[in-house]
Hints:
The complex is a heterotrimer of chains A (542), B (296) and C (292).
Chain A: H1 2-26, H2 29-35, E1 54-61, H3 78-87, E2 89-97, H4 99-112, E3 118-122, H5 123-131, H6 139-145, H7 148-155, H8 160-164, E4 166-167, E5 170-171, E6 174-175, E7 186-190, H9 191-196, H10 205-219, H11 241-246, E8 254-256, E9 262-264, H12 269-284, H13 296-304, E10 310-313, H14 321-328, E11 334-337, E12 347-351, E13 357-361, H15 368-383, H16 411-423, H17 435-448, H18 454-467, E14 476-480, H19 488-510, H20 517-540
Parallel strand pairs in A: 1-2, 1-3, 12-14
Antiparallel strand pairs in A: 3-13, 4-5, 6-13, 7-10, 7-11, 8-9
Helix pairs in contact in A: 1-6, 12-19, 13-14, 14-18, 16-17, 17-18, 19-20
Chain B: H1 2-26, E1 37-38, H2 44-47, E2 49-50, H3 54-61, H4 65-96, H5 100-111, H6 118-129, H7 134-143, H8 156-180, H9 185-193, H10 198-222, H11 230-236, H12 242-245, H13 248-258, H14 262-291
Antiparallel strand pairs in B: 1-2
Chain C: H1 11-38, H2 42-46, H3 60-66, H4 69-100, H5 110-122, H6 127-136, H7 144-147, H8 154-166, H9 169-177, H10 182-193, H11 195-211, H12 214-219, H13 228-236, H14 255-282
Helix pairs in contact in C: 1-14, 4-8, 4-11, 4-13, 8-11, 9-10, 11-14, 13-14
Amino acid sequence: MKKTLGILIICALMVLTACSGNNGNENSSNNTGGNAAGGTTEPADPYAPMTETVTISIGKEAAVDPKLPSGSTIEDNELTRYFAEKLNVKYTNEWQATGDAYMQKVGLTLSTGDIPDVMIVDKQQLVQLVNADLIEDLTSTYESFVSPALKAAYDSTDGYSLASATFDGKLMAFPNVSPGADAQNMLWVRQDWLDELQLEAPQTMDDIINVTKAFMDKKGSVGLLGNQVIVNIGTSVFGFDSIFSAYNAYPQLWTEDASGNAVYGSIQPEVKEALAKIRGWVQEGVIDKEFAVKKNEQVNELVVSGKAGIFFGPWWLPFGMLADSVAQDSKAEWVSYLSPLSPEGKMNTHMASPTTRYLVVKKGFKHPEAVLKTLNMQFDADQLQGEGIVEKDAYNWMNMPFSLLLSNYDDKEKKAKLVQDVIDGKANADTLQGETKQIYNSYLKDKENPKKDLAAWSQRHAFLTGALPLIQDEKINRKVGIYYDQTDTMRTKWANLRKLEDETFLKIIMGNEPVESFDSFVDKWKSQGGDQITKEIAEAAK
Amino acid sequence: MRDSKNSLHYHLMLAPGMILLIIFGIVPLFGMAIAFQDFIPVKGIFGSKWIGLENFKYMFELDDSKTIFFNTIFISVMKMLMNVLIPVFTALLLHEIVFNRLKRWMQTIIYLPHFLSWVILAGILTDMLSQNGIVNQVVTAIAGEPIFFLGSNNWFPVVVVLSDVWKEFGFNTIIFIAALTAINPSLYEAASIDGAGRIRKIWSVTLPGILPTIILVSTLNIGNILNAGFDQIYNLYNPLVYESGDIIDTYVYRIGLVQYQYGLATAVGALKSVVGFILIFVSYKLASRFAGYRIF
Amino acid sequence: MPLTGKRGIRTTDIILTLVMLLITLLCLLPLINVVSLSFSGKSAAASGAVTLFPVDFTFYSYEYMFKDSRFFDAFGVSVKRVLLGGAINFVLTIMMAYPLARERQEFRGRDIYMWVIVFTMMFTGGLIPWYMVVKSLHLTDTIWALVLPTAVPIFNVILLMNFFRGLPKEINESAKMDGAGPWRTLITIAVPLAMPAIATVTLFSIVSHWNAFFDGLILMNKQHNIPLQTYIQQLVVAPSITSSTRPEDLINFSQRTFNAAKIVVTMLPILIIYPFLQRYFVHGITLGSVKE
């Protein structure tokens, strides 16, 4: 706390000197005076325009956006023009790429040394840049210029995000914050089938199996769907994550045991129990064994073509294949449940790391505050979904200057709740703005003409069906990992350990190997580097 | 005298291409140094730590490096054989077709699968090979039991090789067709006069005529012995068939998911190049000794 | 053709044709599937309902590609690339293959060149040094970055060289008698005779220029400089989920129909050029005027 105060004071001083420096150089004291209307003793106005035009070159992560009207590009569109004007900043994209290609470009710029003023890197690259002393210390910039809204977003991860970008007490990057909802899987069910067969909403794993069987018998559907990647902490569609966690097993998650030691989820005895269960269902045919050889796209087919009515997945599925499913069969009613419940009556779920990307500022860049101010505005603009800024262009957050995803950790479920309160008459529609207003409008539109406008249907159901249940904190037991990064030994051993794990688990599930092979897997895992890695993680997570 | 004067022109003809090759092919080879480094991009090639043969050792010290190498070589050798046999067969067959317009159409169409991406093809294949897919309907009718093609370590390599041949045979066929046009027609006339039938002509005129091209294509293929086809396998495999389908490239890819390992990736590339180059050299020597034909 | 002469069509011909038709059909069906997919509605495609005919026929996938004016920029870059790169490939392939086809007695140093070339074919320094070279020559963001590093297609050179070798030796001898130098012999005699092989390698080189997307991705920074396949690649490759994207962004990408449309675009030039080039597969040495 003392440290923070000290930093704050230093920052304030620095800002003052910076301002006076500008005044001296530029004869623009009037301008600065105008900006400081908020009062001179305040740290700084997080939205004040720069006194002189600042140019920021960006390594831009973005795909081609063909939805932009002609005349607008990723580099120059209504959003970037708005930011440029408001902040007196010129944004130029040094280069642009998406997906794997983006990371390759970053790797190339790192190795040739001509890094742009701003780019977004992953943890490993961040560590490299810090060690090589190529990026700016952003501590003081953050303390002085962060907007209250953005600060609240960072605080919503209990300090995790900022901590992961902090080295020796210095904030070296602005981390992203992804919504926590993404990692929490729920049970998605065809409600129309449930109703038709007069079945109760499934609560326990046994219920789920019974419903699946009923769907198979009466609706001719395939069984419970699966994914050949059986567990994925980040984003899992069709995965068995929920089954494992129902048995208190958290494969792939680094957690603490009862006595506070770091342990790896995949080698705990609960996993064996869950594997045996899943194996039984595959043998019974309740889980379609084809999942092991299919990619997600092919499994989607089953959902869209009405051959599947029950599976696990995240809140946003209505945006994807569920919309296709409704397009194919307007009778389809998809509902998500917090299920399976553990004996304690809660749904267990793993949580992903809220931060995986870091915005770094090149060492020597004169105005890091221009970067943070942009982020302040990006956060607000995104909350409003571009309302008041975007007129002709369709809003796409990637068209803002920096492709850093910033959101509140509980963004989705909170927004869903706000809208639901209005629907329930507990709040006034005037309280909604930006994205919540959009959701509400989608709700009204879809209520009026159900399933006519699929975009409205998607938004309505993603939030009000998918995300809303997640607001019930009392019904969810969220297991947060103690460590999400990579240790040194992982660098050489992890691919091998992961192969061992994936192979063993899938083979057990498919009945190619006995359940007991889990035990020898654990031994092998430990001896082939697992123990070493566990030690490192215990050390790192302290 | 005359010859040496010609030689000068030959050097001149080669010069532009050679200069470009040296700039874009030879100069970047200094980058192979990365294979001996713990390469960290921000430090560059000159600043990264030298670790000797560590990266190579790592490759061979993996628990299942034996399986991975075996899979890679097995799959690529099978592909190599099939990718010569089938195209030669197809070229000969096409050569015998007398309906010219049809022939041209067929020639174009068989080339086209080459342009399909494995992402799309994998989708088509998974559908065809699923439990109630078209292939298994036939299998069930004959054998009674469907085969779990993509989940069985016996069948997976077969699927990989056959689907690759299906995708690429048209491409190689073109080369052989071009080679067929080089056969002197008087040889056929002579054979006809000798009373040779269709088969005899193929055996004694056509095949010898394209033999150099067969040797050439085979030799160049041999250089790819450690490339078993990343895109294809990545899109088709799953942990059940790691045992028979995990190849060097897919394995390295999964390591890269954990952490970019530029050093290791370069070492793998270097290993592939060295092995490929040696094999090409050896088969070149063998071909020139036994078939009397030098392809380079 | 050499076999038919004036004899009539026999049963064997019919059988062979039928076999070949079957093989062709085996290639054609998945192609038809892909074309149908590219003209199908998103949800129909996602349901797996599309087999040999489009379901919910729509041009949407193509519109999505063509809508943006940058499509035409990218198309222009690609055309430029194919013309320039193809021409460079064409000239250099011939100019390199011909001297390399000489006997070593006739052209000392030939073997050294040859093994340097084979060596270059087999060894690469990897992405980073290659990028550094191109960058240090200030080629990035110019069309030259796309055509110079790929100027010598080695596989094609070796292919054509072997073809040149197969030409009767007497041809060169007679040219020499006529007092033709190497350049004239190459242009007036060797090239016309090698047309089938030249057509083949030209096809390969056009195809690879048209379809290359990776170098455009790495070497081009400004969006108006990227070639078509790079543009389409960026269009159809969804941002990877691991990066800082939102899952809901992914729905903009109906992988299936776009991927299919992309492949159709990939194949187009081949469908246009190949039948034209096929003329050369028929003639070639059978013209045989030189023999006289």
